[in-house]
Write a structure and sequence with these properties.
By secondary structure, the protein is of the alpha/beta class. The protein is built from eleven helices and 16 strands. Helix 5 packs parallel to helix 9 and helix 6 runs parallel beside helix 7.
Amino acid sequence: MTERTILRLSDLTRKLQQTIDSVFGMAKFWIIADISSHTFKPDTNFHYFELVEKDTQSSRIVAKIAARAWGNAAIHIRNFELATGQVFKNDINVLIQVSVQFHETYGLQINLLDIDTKFTLGKFEQERNATLLKLVTDNPLFIQKQGNEFITKNKLLKLNRVIQRIAVITSETSAGYQDFNHTLVNNNYQYTFSLDLYFTKVQGEVNSKVLLSKLIEVFEAGIAYDAVVVIRGGGSQSDFLLFDNYELSRAVAKFPIPIITGIGHHKNETIVDLMAHTATKTPTKAAELIIANNRNFEESLQQLQQLVVIKTQQQFLVANKDMDLLKSVIVKESLTLLQRSQRHLSQISGIFINRPTMLLQQEKRTIENILRNIKIANQQMLKHKLMNLSHHQSLINLMSPKNILRKGFAILELDGKIISNADLVAPGKALVIRLIDSKITTMVTSKTQENGN
């Protein structure tokens, strides 16, 4: 019978510790693994987690081991989060430096010593570049790259000169939406806006399909929105991963309504930012952009009003100068005619001084007739000139756009320009119809000829 070797458990664990220390005691290893089962104890600054390796084809776990980090390692994790914007949590793939330790009480342990920030940033950038390349390659009709800039169908849309009806895609609890709404409501120019809210989750890569469904919902609503605004507050790098999603970015690039983003990040732009009409850093900046757009339109109207006033004043100034000149001519001609008549009267008086009183009266009546004719001629000439002046004033009034609109006419604008030629209008074009007290935006569905024209 073979003699059994009996050990205390502590003897066995000590042997294991000695054996493992002899092989791994001072060794350090850089390994690539996924994080799983992560917990953090703030009071002790300890991270507890598992390191997992999965089969690339089936996602089956092929290796798993418990690990921990504390002290300097916990500081390295915090620095990693600050540098990448990525929270150290489950399901992230990392490159870490570890040591192997066996403790008689706690068993085999893997200790995290350091974490490679560049590996994670590089992985994000590789995935991002692959998505951008696929977008350009698979969608040449509405996504092109010119230099470092991406040209999309959405980016080429022209913003309406006044943005008022807005579809807002955001989270119902987002502080970013509160900032956006507060900025719009409290603008310095007392502009008012009509907001339709499409609430959804705006963080986490898995919610990209939910966000895409909201974008489709905006399209299917059939409402002539001036713009769609996608907003959210700040967050970690992983919180913004849904804005790098291929399907969502593709939908933004071809969306038929201008999209303005304000998703609260101050580092790199997301792919959705690159595909959208206009990207701003924060929800507040998105609201300020809309207000500034409307202010530019108001200032253009004020400039047009000033131009009309100046032109009218110039016309009155020219008319007044003509009146002054006319008065000067009339007075001069009247004085000349009067002096001529006086001389003629003097001559007659000298010649016929001895004639009977009747002859003198006859000549007096002649003079009175002449003076009356002069007065009538002066009045007719003044009346004629006043009629001319009134005619000019009427033409000026008729030229006023405000007067034309008051009579029931309308001004048509296409792409921000006033048009009068129907050849410029094609079905599918958006027209702005300006009336005396309102503006209507409409879409041309068809165009027919009248009387052969």
